[in-house]
């Protein structure tokens, strides 16, 4: 009763649910405009409706080939690459299903391109054999690098040819892209007909023989094969950027400290057989990794022994010490070099200064450096300033305790508290004795000043 009296509660669960549904319902006109953007060619949205029984928005699609389709849920529509139910059903077991329909109908199908190409997906290059009724650039878009060979065939013959290539070259399939796509849960469409680059010429020869067999009518088909167009005899570049052919690329292994050449391998695979991992991740400019097993690796074609670039520190923030006029490649390098000079600097406190959480670290001001790694390594040390910050009043002080009755017996402690514990006294007593020249437990107390 209290809820009904003091809130807008309806008292009826069903009324409340229907009201909530109406208030949160999507504007169908806006949704239609939004969904039209990603529609494939030959498809359009007929209408957007709300299914009162299922309590969900459903989309009615009109397909250029199959006509108006049954309404589908909006989630199914967004996840489907076809948008048309019938197109989706025909794509299941596409080769076998489509070929069967073509033979039964006596149709040759649509004109198709069969091509041998170089593609790149998930940052991996591979040899692709594909068939498509669209242009290769439209079908494979930015993944397409080079078209090595292309022939036009009716859809029926194209499907047969693609399937025969799959059987003939089954043991040479390149599964790197499909496996990476499965690991990252984002597969690339077309990752099942990929082969190693060494198969390029054998596959092209296989296609040429297939075409000759068709011309000579040596292959038995259930219907007559139509006219076959002359294939493109030479490789051609696509409109996308050309890529590097994935053959063996020699690599050089260099000692990370001395720059001495340790290994010279004919390929990355040979270097990996020596026990080094992920050579191509290292020599590629797309990744920050630069070493494997303590050895730096370079492509031999890009290696200059007289001009070896300095080793970058991955994900490091270069820093600048204002008072010393000195740059460091990272906060940890700053800590290491400053401590070697006797300053109690920590990398974490330098980071705190950079992030605005404290004014100074170990008495020094710090900023992010704008110099490159090479410029930091090549700094002129004569420009460094020998700056010594004022010590903190609460900084630990070394203490020397000398026995009053035996001045030869002297002990130095790193702090007042440790010295006090050693003679069962207190830091306050040692402070007072140091100021007035008094004696504590038979000891004279002196502070040791450090430069």
Account of the protein in words:
The chain is of the alpha+beta class and 451 residues long. Helix content is 32%, strand content 23%. The chain is built from 17 helices and 20 strands. It has a 5-stranded antiparallel β-sheet. Strands 1, 2, 3 and 4 form a 4-stranded antiparallel β-sheet that branches. Strand 2 (56-63) and strand 3 (67-68) form a beta hairpin. Helix 13 (331-340) crosses helix 14 (347-354). Mean pLDDT is 78; it is low at 221-234 and 240-246.
Topology readout:
Elements: H1 2-6, H2 13-24, H3 28-36, E1 43-51, E2 56-63, E3 67-68, E4 72-73, H4 74-79, H5 85-91, H6 94-105, E5 111-121, E6 124-132, H7 136-140, E7 144-154, H8 155-168, H9 176-183, E8 194-195, H10 200-215, E9 236-237, E10 251-255, E11 261-265, H11 268-273, H12 279-283, E12 291-292, E13 295-299, E14 319-321, E15 326-328, H13 331-340, H14 347-354, E16 366-368, H15 373-377, E17 398-403, E18 406-413, H16 416-422, H17 427-436, E19 439-440, E20 443-448
Antiparallel strand pairs: 1-2, 2-3, 2-4, 5-6, 5-7, 6-8, 7-9, 10-11, 10-13, 12-13, 14-15, 14-16, 17-18, 17-20, 19-20
Short summary:
With 451 residues, the protein is α+β, with helices and mostly antiparallel strands. It has helices at 2-6, 13-24, 28-36, 74-79, 85-91, 94-105, 136-140, 155-168, 176-183, 200-215, 268-273, 279-283, 331-340, 347-354, 373-377, 416-422, 427-436; strands at residues 43-51, 56-63, 67-68, 72-73, 111-121, 124-132, 144-154, 194-195, 236-237, 251-255, 261-265, 291-292, 295-299, 319-321, 326-328, 366-368, 398-403, 406-413, 439-440, 443-448.
């Amino acid at each position: 009763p209290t809820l009904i009296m003091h809130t807008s509660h309806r008292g009826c669960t069903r009324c409340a649910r229907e009201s909530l549904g109406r208030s949160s319902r999507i504007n169908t006109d806006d949704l239609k405009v939004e969904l039209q953007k990603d529609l494939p060619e030959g498809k359009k949205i007929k209408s957007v409706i709300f299914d009162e029984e299922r309590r969900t928005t459903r989309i009615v699609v009109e397909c250029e080939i199959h006509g108006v389709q049954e309404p589908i849920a909006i989630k199914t529509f967004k996840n489907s690459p076809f948008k048309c139910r019938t197109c989706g059903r025909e794509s299941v077991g596409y080769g076998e299903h489509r070929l069967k329909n073509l033979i039964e109908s006596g149709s040759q199908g649509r004109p198709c391109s069969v091509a041998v190409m170089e593609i790149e997906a998930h940052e991996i290059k591979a040899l692709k054999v594909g068939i498509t009724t669209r242009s290769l650039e439209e079908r494979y878009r930015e993944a397409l690098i080079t078209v090595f060979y292309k022939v036009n065939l009716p859809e029926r013959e194209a499907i047969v040819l693609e399937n025969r290539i799959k059987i003939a070259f089954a043991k040479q399939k390149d599964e790197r892209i499909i496996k990476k796509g499965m690991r990252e849960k984002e597969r690339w469409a077309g990752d099942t007909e990929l082969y190693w680059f060494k198969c390029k010429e054998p596959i092209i020869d296989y296609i040429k023989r297939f075409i000759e067999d068709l011309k000579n009518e040596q292959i038995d088909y259930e219907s007559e094969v139509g006219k076959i167009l002359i294939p493109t005899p030479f490789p051609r570049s696509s409109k996308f950027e050309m890529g590097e052919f994935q053959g063996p690329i020699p690599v050089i292994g260099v000692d990370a400290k001395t720059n001495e050449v340790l290994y010279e391998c004919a390929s990355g695979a040979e270097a990996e057989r020596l026990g080094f991992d992920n050579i191509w991740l290292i020599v590629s400019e797309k990744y920050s990794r630069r070493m494997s097993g303590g050895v730096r690796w370079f492509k031999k074609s890009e290696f200059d022994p007289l001009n070896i670039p300095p080793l970058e520190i991955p994900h490091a923030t270069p820093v600048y010490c204002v008072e010393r006029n000195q740059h460091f490649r990272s906060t940890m390098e700053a800590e290491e070099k400053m401590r070697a000079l006797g300053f109690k600097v920590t990398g974490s406190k330098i980071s705190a200064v950079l992030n605005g959480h404290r004014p100074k670290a170990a008495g020094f001001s710090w900023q992010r450096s704008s110099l490159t790694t090479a410029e930091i390594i090549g700094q002129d040390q004569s420009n460094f300033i020998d700056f010594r910050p004022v010590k903190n009043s609460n900084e630990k002080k070394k203490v020397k305790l000398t026995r009053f009755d035996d001045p030869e017996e002297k002990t130095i402690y790193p702090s007042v508290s440790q010295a006090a514990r050693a003679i069962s006294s207190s830091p306050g007593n040692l402070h007072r004795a140091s100021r007035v020249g008094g004696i504590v437990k038979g000891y004279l107390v002196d502070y040791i000043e450090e430069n």
